[in-house]
Amino acid sequence: HKRVAILISGGGSNMLALLDSMVGDHPARPCLVLSNDPAAGGLAKAAARGVPVAAVDHRPFKGDRAAFEAELLKPLEEAQPDIVCLAGFMRVLTGEFVSRFQGRMLNIHPSLLPKYPGLHTHSRALAAGDAEHGCTVHEVTAVLDDGPILGQARVPVKAGDTPEALAARVLEQEHHLYPAVLRRFAEGRRDPVHLG
Ligand code: GAR
Q1: Check: complex ipTM more than 0.90
Q2: How far apart are CA 194 and CA 14, in angstroms?
């Protein structure tokens, strides 16, 4: 089996969707769930499923990204992942860190990239009057929310949508898209998945 490490910062609903998918004839298995926040709700959920967990709190590093990443790298390299999945991981990673996992690090982002890299994607899509919105899984490069697109899922924007309602509609699709892309990626396929 390919070994998959998942990096989270919060509740980890995408992480759980990925864990739940890696069963049976799936070519990958989880080897670590790692967070920059020791209080991330996802850590307990992963541990309850028997997956090794670790946390490196970014706050004591006070913006020293290189020092933080050196600590983050320790449990990550110990786990010897073949594939690293960012799943709601909310720290920007340096090019140096990313280059260690070049071609084997994935991210899920809540917009139809190249639209709306960065934060507040749902309110930006609403403010622009977009008729559709969605999510993207892409290979991670040194440029934030850039890199080859491996899959996208689309949702309609509805009349009267709030950012929260739209986010919930997108998140539901994220839980389908990310497992679909990971499975194909673990099989060596890079042709993009389209849902919705
Ligand atoms: C997801 O919507 C994910 O796409 C987004 O954070 C949420 C995490 O939810 N990621 C980003 O915004 C990355 N910049 P989860 O913890 O329940 O998976």
Answers
A1: yes
A2: 18
